[in-house]
Amino acid sequence: MKRAVQRAGTVGKRETGRPMVRVAGYTQESFRMKVVDKYRIAAGLAAMVLWMSGAAEAQVGDVGTPAPRAGRVADRPRAGAALTASAPDDGQSVRRTQATAADAPTPPANPAAGSAATGATNTDLSLPRAEREGGGGGPTAADAADAPAEAEAKPDETKLLMKLLKVPDDSKVKVYGWIQNSFTGNTNGRPKNGQNFGVNPNNLANQWMGNQYYLIFEKALQPNDQVNFGFRFDNLFGNDAQFNHAHGIFDRAFKTNYFSQYDPAQYYAEVHLPWFTEGGLDIKGGRFYTLAGYEVVPATGRPLLSVPYMFNYGQPFTHSGMLTTLHLTKNINIYNGAINGWDRQFDQRLTWGYIGGFSATSTSGKTSLATTFIEGPQQFPTFLPASQNPIYPTGVVPPPQQFAGLKNPGYHSNDRFLFTTVLTHKWSEKLTQVMETDQAWETNVPFALGNSNTGGFNRHNAQWYSFGNWFLYQFNEKLTGVWRSEIFRDNNGVRTGTAADYNEFTLGAIYKPKPYIWVRPEARYDFTNGPKVYNDNTRNSQLTLAFDIILLF
């Protein structure tokens, strides 16, 4: 089921009532050093690969000639013509692409994925989320530099709504979106609770879902030498609204697992300042998608219908706060920001945290590296109600009834740390590989060891880490094959409800009979290292067959 629903349930138990399994971990300090060491090693190896890739490309005479990228700059180059050549841009340049109608999740070889005129969001799947638009960061200058030529290849055929409203193609304000519906069959049979555990956002078994009815109003920043302003307002209607829910916004307004739900997914204003560097500085404030990781919430910004565990359980979806993107060079972006937590609305009671990172692209545009760090208290200063309809932010364990509404005495020691690193490489014009590794821990999580009705109060450190790999192969302009494999370790059960190694293999495709119609079938196999978490806790594996249909307008 979706993250928001899966986290719900009685105190210290999964929805089924089965006590959470716990695994002995490390001390806080030893685990922190272990994670930091792994992170440094991973970052060092990634940087080496990036450097070697650039060097190798230089030897074959490819330096300075960025390879064509599907829907890259055309959709919306970030401020300062110097955005990273291969950085994915979901408006946050370091994480998920918040796709727009013109953006096609086809790997690298479809130059006509969008046009500069339409201002669509960059959803080139060969880039890390941080370099894709639609949320927090932006493409690097290198990416923006070759966008115009790609954009002129063919007109954007996906902006059906703007054509219907007779809005000029060169209008600075864009209105666009998509409709996504899906069906997911569970080969184990329909569970009694109707949920495909671990499979999100298509969590409902053997039934049709209206996932996303998505509408965007946007005025993109212009990457020039003038101060200019922009804004974006994303409206998410449908089943996936609970998937992207932020605490403090419509907490009890809608029933979970129903189509009739709404979430104001993003709303922010931004300004481009042509200062400090050639590419300038972008500043945004409001609610925006996170920079961390590779996959994203918008259906058109990710390669498959379902998302991995590492995205659904290990990372935030949105932040409320302020984020800056400094286009340091034409190949490097630097991100810094202050946020009011993970997946929650502005609240003066909450202690602010930090988000930062960088994205870099090789001179040829074939290799991109993005890393993100997020830190700060992520519990609540006052314990939430014992029943929350039942949407709790991931990692917040429902309190026993006797603690509900009381002050959390350890709030300021509930620090959560997350490192994400995404490395992408275009092996050829058809084949792209993406790798992501995440490490995270949280200190003194209230009720993390399970909750009793004896009045006891416990705190426990939690850790989770993961590795994911994607291959995208573009057979032709209409068909792209996708393979994803992943392992996610929930060391203490705080993220999923049960401590286990969660593994997932997914084979799928992106078929576009028309630029504005996408069909994405997938076969997904999930399994754990023993714990029975699937089909009402009766199995340790699960095979689902699914597909979605997307209409861009």
Describe the 3D structure:
This protein has one domain. The protein contains six helices and 17 strands. It has helices spanning 3-6, 28-59, 141-145, 147-151, 160-164, 309-312, and strands at residues 83-84, 173-186, 207-219, 228-237, 262-273, 281-289, 318-329, 332-339, 353-361, 367-377, 415-426, 431-446, 459-474, 479-490, 500-514, 517-528, 541-552. The chain is globular, with a radius of gyration of 22 Å.
Q: Give helix % range.
A: under 10%
Class based on secondary structure composition and strand pairing: mainly beta
Give the low-confidence spans: 1-43, 45-122, 147-151, 451-455
Helix and strand string, N-terminal first?
A: HHEHHHEEEEEHEEEEEEEEEEE
The outline comes out as globular
